[in-house]
């Protein structure tokens, strides 16, 4: 009798399957979130290893460990893997874990598509990485793949690169549709749009951005494919095409893309600062409006990446002004975070340390961004290490720190175990020092005139490049340490309570730690 | 309007004072860490803009981070066990939306002005066409019929750490662009293969060189001097190795230089008439090969598998003299192999071809035939 009941029970509640099957067949948002997070961690380490090769070559002037041709392949793959394999899947993983729990839904709206959108990703990156072993080598034209370097003059593996970008795009679009449908249809009764947690808001906006721009990227690579194999001349001047058209299309995708990589970070940091300040977030509705205006503005600033291509004066002025305008909503967000901390009751657990570093260092990246927006000055900054410093400040202590903060913040909910606070803090300080030692000097070498994407440089840049490389290795090794901390937490540790953090608010903190395989099978009531 | 202007002016003045104090202390080191002030009115304007924005950012940063660090220090749980409960304040929120907006306008006004003067681009006194090639720059003086290519002149041995690096490592070229001071020099920038970008920081000129387009930039240099720049758009393997060197000289020195260049071209043409032996051609060809071909086909003619074919043992180089001349004269459509018809005079063309046919064991494996300048002249005639 009892055996029968047990079976019955299993049938209805779909506990996790055993072994590998669980991971291949799963439609559970928590499992898929875990897959995404581990996958992005693996990509982060691979892309990081490539960064180490780049930095090692730049340790001293002269060619030491790689050839220029291979160097170009490394910067290309490093950029592509960090963006499409590191940051984006990590945010999708966080969305999978958190969005249903935050809005009181039992799962994502489209669970089978969820499975598919994850499982095509490993193939995309397998294809991309395998191009390293093809004749002519991997793509070598930078992650921005400007034509005609990426068409007429590209290695044969470019076709595989195009295929892999298509797969990544399909995965992102499916993921976004899932997020939107879930948020629009599955919120618990009583949770109006303006009551949604900010992480949910940030992902709703991000998902719309993704759906708007991933097809544009797909269009760009398809036109490349046509130029390479089917005799068209979209980007080939000799055939009547236009190489600058490529850049317009690419950056129409590319600029919203950079906001895709930072909006979810805004959401995460808002939650963490609120929790550890033990004070309600300042200016919730202005936070939402700021994200919306950033998202909309992000469609009309793209050509600030192209100030030197020779646009007419009117266009240069328009893109300068529109870009400067983005600083206003971005400033509002920073002010709100600080106002939340002001007169709060603050403690500095690891997630809060990462969040505070995010606010400071992301803002530094914002300042250099503002400088880059000033067109005449950008004529000097463009394509130098000043730009490399800028985008690494917004990506590494920006996007990546927010992801790490999120992991420390929610891992007790995911695993039921507290991470080791002492190790977490050590990891934070190593990363913080590492990031600044790596990227701060790059402002100087950029201003002094070192171009980006070069394997070798003039002697006056030698000292700071050496410092930068030392910082990079410190940062790199700290991330291996992070891997150790995460594994240690998954395996065991102090048991976490449901509430976990004293000041935490939100539905995810009302369920047990670890969160049961199924949560909110009956929706909670939100007042 | 005048108010805004005078405000900007006084801010600028304040900053210059601070900056001056700072730069007095460590002017040498500071220069190595900051944007150059350059050698033209425009470049100094750009530098001033850069410093203006920089200091505005510093001030905002000090204020904002000041409040943040104060909160982190004064409102810890220990010092303030119970948090305040405010979470909105319309006035404050309006203020921190509007004030940044005004600051931005104060930045945009001088920036737009400078941009306008940069774009004020009438015909120059001297027009130089700048053409980017993988991986060298070509300069064509449109009025004076002077035309040459500038290659990196740093030794491969320096790059591969076999000998100590010189002072101008990677910033030196075999042919320097010479311009006169005080004249408006206009650059018409384009490219032959992929996109490059012509950057000379001292002129605050960075202009993409795009195949099929001609972009313009101009400069008026006040004082004689030597100015170094680089390609700043990833253009393939040797993107890091195509520097720019411009020398500004007085007008009479410039005129002399133009005459010398024109005379040199005539002398080179005369060499075509001479009777050349195989050994002489090989000798002349070696340095030409190193300068023009090594980047792709390698020092031993081995190429790079899958991208650049080997010349050692290549069937064309061994046995097909006619086709080889054709490849060098016309280039290969849609491949990195460009036409050298313009870059190499007839003697030099013959010399470099003969060199490849006689080196790396090719003479023994193939027909060993040499190419003399007359063959090139004939090829050119046949084409007409
Ligand atoms: C260990 C940390 C990292 C180091 C040391 C590092 C280093 C570098 C270096 C040296 C370059 C080449 C610069 C050039 O020559 O143009 C580069 C490019 C780039 N990196 Fe990183 N990086 C790190 C982390 C990241 C992360 C986390 C991201 C993304 C979120 C990222 C995104 C990029 C992008 C987009 C490029 C431009 C690639 C291109 O030029 O096509 N990096 N990085
Ligand atoms: Cu952008
Ligand atoms: Cu280049």
Q: What descriptors fit this protein?
A:
heterodimer, A: 527 residues, mainly alpha, Cytochrome C Oxidase, Chain A, B: alpha+beta, Immunoglobulin-like, five-stranded mixed β-sheet, 13 helices, elongated, binds copper (II) ion
What does this structure look like?
By secondary structure, chain A is mainly α. Chain A folds into two domains: 25-238, Cytochrome C Oxidase, Chain A (Up-down Bundle); 262-519, Cytochrome c oxidase-like, subunit I domain (Cytochrome C Oxidase, Chain A), CATH 1.20.210.10. Chain A contains 17 helices and no strands. Chain A has helices spanning 2-13, 19-25, 29-57, 68-103, 111-119, 121-130, 158-185, 198-229, 243-260, 263-277, 284-297, 313-341, 350-373, 375-381, 385-415, 421-447, 462-491. In chain A, helix 3 (29-57) packs parallel to helix 5 and helix 16 runs antiparallel to helix 17. Chain B is 47% helix and 15% strand. The radius of gyration of chain B is 29 Å and the shape is elongated. Chain B has four domains: 1-32; 34-118, Orthogonal Bundle (Helix Hairpins); 126-268, Immunoglobulin-like (Sandwich); 274-383, Cytochrome c-like domain (Cytochrome Bc1 Complex, Chain D, domain 2, Orthogonal Bundle), CATH 1.10.760. In chain B, helix 3 (41-74) packs antiparallel against helix 4 (90-119), helix 7 crosses helix 11 and helix 11 (346-358) crosses helix 13. Chain B has helices spanning 2-25, 27-33, 41-74, 90-119, 156-159, 251-270, 278-292, 294-297, 315-319, 321-330, 346-358, 362-365, 373-383; strands spanning 126-133, 136-141, 146-150, 177-180, 185-191, 196-200, 205-209, 215-219, 225-231, 244-249. In chain B, strand 2 (136-141) and strand 3 form a beta hairpin. In chain B, the strands form two sheets. In chain B, strands 3-2-1-5-8 form a five-stranded mixed beta sheet. Chain B is an alpha+beta fold and 384 residues long. Chain B has 13 helices and ten strands. Chain B starts with a helix and ends with a helix. At the A-B interface, helix 4, helix 12, helix 13 and helix 14 of A face helix 3, helix 4 and strand 7 of B.
């Amino acid at each position: 009798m009892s055996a029968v009941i047990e079976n019955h029970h299993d049938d209805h509640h779909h506990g996790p399957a055993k072994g590998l099957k669980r991971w291949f067949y799963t439609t559970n948002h928590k499992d898929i979130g875990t897959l995404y997070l581990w996958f992005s961690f693996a990509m982060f380490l691979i892309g990081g290893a490539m960064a180490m090769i780049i930095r090692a070559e730049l340790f001293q002037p002269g060619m030491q460990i790689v050839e220029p041709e291979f160097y170009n392949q490394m910067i290309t793959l490093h950029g592509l893997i960090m963006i499409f394999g590191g940051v984006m899947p990590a945010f999708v993983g966080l969305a999978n874990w958190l969005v249903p729990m935050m809005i009181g839904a039992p799962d994502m709206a489209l669970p089978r598509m969820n499975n598919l959108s994850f499982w095509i990703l490993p193939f995309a990156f397998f294809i991309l990485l395998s191009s390293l072993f093809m004749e002519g080598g991997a793509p070598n034209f930078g992650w921005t793949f400007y034509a005609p370097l990426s068409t007429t003059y590209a290695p044969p593996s470019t076709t595989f690169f195009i295929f892999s970008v298509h797969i990544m795009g399909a995965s992102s679009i499916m993921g976004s549709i899932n997020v939107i449908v879930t948020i629009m249809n599955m919120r618990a009764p009583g949770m109006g749009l303006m009551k949604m947690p900010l992480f949910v808001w940030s992902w709703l906006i991000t998902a719309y951005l993704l759906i708007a721009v991933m097809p544009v990227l797909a269009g760009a690579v398809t036109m490349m494919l046509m130029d390479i194999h089917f005799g068209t001349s979209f980007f080939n001047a000799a055939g009547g095409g236009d190489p600058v058209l490529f850049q317009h299309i690419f950056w129409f995708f590319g600029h919203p893309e950079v906001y895709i990589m930072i909006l979810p970070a805004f959401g995460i940091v808002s939650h963490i600062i609120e929790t550890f300040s033990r004070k309600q977030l300042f200016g919730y509705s202005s936070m939402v409006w700021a994200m919306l205006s950033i998202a909309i503005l992000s469609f009309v600033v793209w050509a600030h990446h192209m100030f030197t291509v020779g646009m007419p004066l009117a266009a240069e002025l328009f893109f300068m002004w529109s870009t400067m305008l983005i600083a206003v909503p971005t400033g509002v967000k920073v002010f709100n975070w600080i106002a939340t901390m002001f007169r709060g009751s603050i403690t500095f657990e690891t997630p809060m340390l990462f969040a505070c570093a995010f606010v400071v260092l992301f803002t530094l990246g914002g300042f250099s961004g503002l400088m880059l927006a000033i067109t005449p000055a950008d004529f000097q900054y463009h394509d130098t290490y000043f730009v490399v410093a800028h985008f690494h400040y917004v990506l590494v202590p920006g996007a990546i720190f927010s992801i790490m903060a999120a992991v420390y913040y929610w891992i007790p909910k995911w695993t039921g175990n507290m991470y080791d606070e002492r190790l977490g803090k050590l990891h934070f300080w190593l990363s913080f020092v590492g990031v600044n030692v790596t990227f701060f000097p790059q402002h100087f070498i950029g201003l002094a005139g070192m171009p980006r994407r070069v394997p070798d440089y003039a002697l006056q840049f030698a000292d700071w490049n050496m410092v930068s490389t030392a910082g990079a290795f410190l940062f790199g090794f700290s991330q291996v340490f992070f891997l150790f901390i995460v594994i240690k937490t998954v395996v065991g540790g102090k048991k976490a309570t449901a509430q976990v953090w004293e000041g935490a608010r939100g539905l995810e903190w009302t369920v047990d730690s670890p969160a049961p395989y199924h949560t909110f099978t009956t929706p909670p009531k939100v007042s | 309007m005048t108010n805004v202007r005078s405000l900007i002016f006084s801010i600028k003045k304040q900053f210059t004072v601070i900056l001056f104090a700072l730069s007095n202390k460590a002017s040498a080191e500071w220069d190595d860490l900051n944007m150059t002030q350059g050698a033209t009115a425009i470049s100094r304007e750009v530098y001033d803009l850069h410093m203006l924005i920089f200091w505005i950012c510093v001030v905002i940063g000090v204020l904002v981070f000041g409040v943040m660090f104060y909160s982190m220090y004064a409102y810890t749980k220990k010092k303030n066990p119970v948090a305040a409960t405010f979470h909105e304040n319309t006035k404050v929120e309006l203020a921190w939306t509007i004030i940044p907006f005004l600051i931005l306008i104060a930045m945009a006004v001088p920036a737009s002005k400078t941009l306008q003067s940069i774009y004020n681009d009438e015909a120059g006194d001297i027009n130089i066409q700048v053409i980017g090639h993988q991986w060298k720059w070509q300069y064509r003086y449109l009025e004076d019929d002077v035309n040459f290519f500038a290659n990196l002149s740093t030794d491969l041995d320096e790059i591969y750490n076999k000998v100590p690096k010189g002072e101008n490592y990677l910033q030196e070229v075999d042919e320097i662009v010479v311009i006169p001071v005080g004249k408006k020099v206009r650059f018409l920038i384009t490219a032959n293969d992929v996109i490059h970008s012509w950057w000379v920081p001292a002129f605050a000129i960075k202009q993409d060189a795009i195949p099929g387009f001609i972009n313009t930039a101009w400069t008026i240099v006040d004082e004689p001097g030597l100015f170094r720049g680089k390609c700043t758009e990833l253009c393939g393997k040797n993107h890091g190795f195509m520097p720019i060197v411009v020398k500004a000289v007085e007008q009479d020195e410039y005129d002399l230089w133009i005459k010398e260049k024109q005379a040199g071209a005539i002398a080179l043409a005369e060499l075509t008439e001479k009777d050349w032996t195989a050994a002489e051609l090989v000798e002349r060809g070696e340095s030409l090969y190193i300068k023009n071909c090594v980047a792709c086909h390698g020092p031993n003619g081995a190429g790079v598998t899958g991208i650049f074919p080997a010349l050692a043992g290549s069937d064309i180089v061994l046995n097909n003299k006619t086709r080889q001349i054709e490849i060098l004269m016309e280039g290969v459509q849609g491949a990195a192999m460009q036409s050298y018809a313009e870059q190499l005079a007839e003697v030099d063309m013959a010399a470099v071809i003969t060199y490849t046919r006689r080196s790396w064991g090719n003479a023994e494996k193939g027909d060993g035939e040499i190419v003399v300048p007359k063959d090139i002249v004939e090829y050119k005639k046949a084409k007409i």
